[in-house]
Amino acid sequence: MALANSRALTLAGITRATPDVAGGEIVRDDRGEPTGLLKDNAMQLVERIVPSPTAADEDAALDAALRLLASNGITSAHHMGALPPAGSWHEVQIFRRAHARRRLTTRLYVTVPLDTWPRLRDLIAAGDLGGDDGRGDDWLRVGGLKSFIDGSLGSRTAAFHQPYDDAPGEGLFMDTVERWREWMIDADRACLQLITHAIGDRANTTLLDLYAEVTAANGARDRRLRVEHAQHLTPADIPRLAAIGAIASMQPQHAIDDGRWIERAIGHERARTSYAWRSLRNAGTRLAFGSDWFVAPPVPLAGIQAATSGWRPDQHITLEDALRGYTVEAAHASFEEGKKGRLSEGLLADIVVLDQDIFEKHARLEEARVEATIVGGELIFAR
C-alpha cells in the first residue's frame, strides 16, 4: 500500500472520477472521494510522477544500504526490484555503476520484471552482464524474473479461495493467468529462473498450477522455481511444492508481525497452515529464508529466532534448519551453492562472527550480536 497526500493526488490527476485500476484499488470515503490510500497496482498512478533521484542520491542510498547489511551479518542479498516507476532495470545500472567502482561490499543476485524476459535473455546471450555464463560474476549477478500473483495480507489484497473474515472480498490478482502462463513458459524455455510473489492460498494454488504447466510444457530440468512468501497454503498444496521442485522462499519475521492479527483476518482454520515451515520441510520442500526488507528489517538473527519460536509452536523448525535457510538454501535458490553458503575450503571467504555460540545449550539467541562481517576475505564491518 501507499499513502498520498492531496497535493500528490492532484498532480497525479486522481479524483472521484478516476476509474478503478485492474489489480489495484483506489480507496475512497463514503462520498466516493479518494482518501489517498492506494493498493497494489493503483500505487503506480502516483509513483509515475514522483521525481527521480539523482545519480549521487542513488549512490549514497546504496552505500547506506550496504553498510546496514554488513552490520547485520549479511554477505549476500537477493534484490527483488520489480516495481515501477524506475523498475529494476534502472536499479541494475545503479549496481553496475557501484561494481565498476569496486564499491559493492555485499554480493547481489538481482531480479528483473517477468514481462521483460526477452531483454534479459538477449543480454545474457550477448554476454553484456559479464561472467562465464553471461549472468555476471561473484559480486553482481542478474538471473531471475520477478512477478506478482497477488497483493498482501495487511492490505487485504492477498488472494484467498474464501472471503476475508474481517473485510469484503477474497483479494485480487495483479494480472491475468493467461498472461502469466505465456510469459512463464516462454521465459522458462529460455532457461531463466522464475521467482513469483504469492501470499494468499488462492494465489499459491494458482502459482503452483502455473509452475506445473511450465514443467509440462518445457520438460524436466534443474529450474529452481521459487515461490516468494508461500505465506498461506491450503493443506492440499503443502506437498505440491516439493512434488513440483519449487523452493519456498520465505520471511520468518513476517509471522511475528502478522501473528498479532492474522486470525482476525482469515480465521483460525486458515491460519493453521500459514507460515508452515515445519510442514513444508517435512514434505521435502527446500526453505530459503530472507527478510523482504524494507517490509521487515534485514536482520537474519531475528529471522532465525522467529522460525524457531513465536506464535506457531507446531511450525517451529530446528536452529540448524533455520540457519541453513539463510545460508546453504539461500545460496541454492540463486544457483550459487557451489560458491557460497558454507564455510568450506574452496568456497568464497564470506564469514560472519557472532559474539556467542548460538548452538550452545544456554545461548540466548535474542541477545546475539554480529561482531564482524567478512566478504571475500576482507573485513567490511567490525563492532
Fold and architecture overview:
It is a single chain. Helix 6 (177-189) crosses helix 7, helix 9 (252-258) crosses helix 12 and helix 12 (300-308) packs antiparallel against helix 13 (319-326). The protein contains 14 helices and 13 strands. The strands form three sheets. The protein has a seven-stranded parallel beta sheet with strand order 4-5-6-7-8-9-10. The protein has helices at 6-12, 44-47, 55-71, 87-100, 117-126, 177-189, 201-218, 238-244, 252-258, 262-271, 277-282, 300-308, 319-326, 328-333, and strands at 2-3, 24-28, 34-40, 76-79, 107-113, 140-148, 193-198, 226-229, 247-250, 287-289, 351-354, 370-375, 378-382. The mean pLDDT is 95. The protein is an alpha/beta fold. The protein is globular, with a radius of gyration of 21 Å. The chain folds into two domains: 2-47, no CATH class; 55-346, TIM Barrel (Alpha-Beta Barrel). Helices cover 36% and strands 17% of the residues.
Write the layout of secondary structure elements.
Layout: E1 2-3, H1 6-12, E2 24-28, E3 34-40, H2 44-47, H3 55-71, E4 76-79, H4 87-100, E5 107-113, H5 117-126, E6 140-148, H6 177-189, E7 193-198, H7 201-218, E8 226-229, H8 238-244, E9 247-250, H9 252-258, H10 262-271, H11 277-282, E10 287-289, H12 300-308, H13 319-326, H14 328-333, E11 351-354, E12 370-375, E13 378-382
Parallel strand pairs: 4-5, 5-6, 6-7, 7-8, 8-9, 9-10
Antiparallel strand pairs: 1-3, 2-3, 11-12, 12-13
Helix pairs in contact: 6-7, 9-12, 12-13
